[in-house]
Design goal:
The structure is a single chain. This protein has 172 residues and is α+β, with helices and mostly antiparallel strands. It has one domain: Gcn5-related N-acetyltransferase (GNAT) (Aminopeptidase). 37% of the residues lie in helices and 26% in strands. A 7-stranded mixed sheet has the order 1-2-3-4-5-7-6. α1 crosses α2 and α3 crosses α5.
């Protein structure tokens, strides 16, 4: 093996496992302590049991869509929502806040997830939040170009908007 160049380990994108709930809850709650929150600054702490219950509750609304991203260092991100007809609706996204650039991680991993949604035939994306406070709001409105629905904590994007963001972010 001397002189052999080994490729770095590939990141893994997979579906949620029950054992993921601990690290997801940990990073969700850590976000609440940050002065510049990435997501939902006004929601309260969650437990691993809540993460699992949230998933179960979503099953009643449609087919589960989720993505866990990990690499050799461990957890990187988690997104969950549902698919009904040609619409995807998401209500939780969590990234590893110990990552050197957590907002960049959010940008890239959501773009990868959006690419998968487009490949599944999704024509509309809905994202709901428990508040409109956090960096994710500016990201959705200014970078993704999602449109806010009234004064609710709901943003939507059509297929062309998603495609444009994916192409720009992933440079494809």
């Amino acid at each position: 093996m001397r002189g052999e160049i080994l490729a770095p380990p590939c990141p893994i994108f997979r579906t949620f496992r029950s054992s993921d709930a601990n690290v997801i809850a940990q990073h969700y709650n850590k976000n609440l302590t940050k002065p510049d929150n990435i997501w939902c600054a006004t929601s309260g702490p969650v437990s691993p049991a809540y993460i699992k219950l949230h998933r179960l509750a979503l099953k009643a609304r449609g087919s589960i869509l989720d993505q866990v991203h990990e690499d050799e260092t461990g957890f990187l991100s988690y997104f969950i929502g549902t698919k009904k007809n040609d619409t995807a609706s998401f209500s939780m996204g969590v990234v590893n806040l110990d990552h050197p650039q957590p907002m960049d991680l959010l940008r890239k991993d959501t773009a990868l997830f959006m690419k998968n949604l487009l490949n599944m035939g999704i024509n509309k994306l809905r994202i709901t939040g428990s508040s409109d406070q956090g960096s994710y709001v500016d990201w959705m409105e200014q970078e993704v170009k999602m449109k806010r629905v009234g004064k609710n904590n709901l943003w939507i994007a059509d297929r062309n908007t998603l495609k444009s963001y994916v192409e720009k972010t992933l440079s494809i």
